[in-house]
Amino acid sequence: MSIEVAEHLMKQYDFLTKKDFWDCHGTPIIKHYALLQVALTNKITFGKPDVLDIDLKNRICCIGILAKMSNKEEYDLGEACPENCTNAYTTAMAIKRAKDRAVIKVLGLYGKVYSDADVVTDKDGNKAFAEDIQVWQGTTEEQVAKAIAEVNN
User: 122, exposed or middle or buried, with CB in 10 Å at 0-12, 13-18, 19+?
Assistant: First the structure.
């Protein structure tokens, strides 16, 4: 992992610890909740999410969102579908990815650190960026049934 980036962020934000970061093939990854704390500390606000594409039956979603910090603004996208998301909540994942990417950009960290929302664990437990691995392909019916059961409980 690029230790320098994580160490810099831990010095800048005293609430961050080593547990808030991990290494993905030499790339520093910050956990979503930690990134949201950094956003809150910097008074980053979000515009209303733009739903650019959504197909709930096929679990496809693309969201755009604007992050604002003082006089800086950054817009980014978050997308999720069965090919890059192993959970049944692709809409929530798309929003999570959009927010995290916009925060990273508005903080000037683009290309230096990535969010754990952009990392997928495959069926063998390997972690990599979503576009770089083959994710587990459960049937849509199985995943929808699991999601419905979780919501109903």
Answer: middle
